[in-house]
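[Discussion] Sanity-checking designs against the backbone

I'm trying to build intuition for which residues belong where. Below is a structure token string of 123 positions. I'd appreciate it if someone posts a full sequence so I can compare it with mine line by line.
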């Protein structure tokens, strides 16, 4: 359940990626060794660029939850996203429930390219 086990879900997904991608494991290990001559501090970890890339890419491909829901609080018009071409305005009335699929959104080839499902940490 997100919010309760989000960190555990993220770490499990990171270990899954590292087990299947030795190149990512090596690059991440090299960054940690180079950045942490002694015990890591919050600031050291915060400044590890490749670690941040790995965490962000893992969250994109393996989100802790796959869908969400929001309720529109007032009548709203999005200037685009409607119509067959996605360029027309779309009206969303107050109290409308909006359900979204994060897994589909984060793997959308129109947004992420033809290799949207590939783990490319530097993307």
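Best answer:
Here's mine. Compare freely.
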């Amino acid at each position: 359940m997100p919010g309760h086990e989000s960190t555990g879900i993220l770490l499990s997904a990171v270990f899954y990626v590292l087990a299947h991608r030795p190149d990512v494991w090596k690059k991440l290990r090299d960054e940690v060794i180079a950045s942490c001559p002694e015990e890591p501090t919050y600031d050291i970890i915060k400044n590890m660029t490749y670690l941040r890339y790995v965490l962000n890419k893992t969250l994109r491909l393996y989100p802790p939850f796959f869908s969400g829901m929001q309720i529109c609080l007032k009548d709203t018009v999005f200037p685009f996203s409607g119509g067959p071409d996605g360029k027309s305005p779309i009206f969303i009335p107050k109290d409308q429930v909006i359900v979204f699929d994060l897994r589909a959104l984060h793997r959308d080839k129109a947004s992420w390219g033809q290799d949207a499902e590939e783990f490319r940490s530097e993307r």
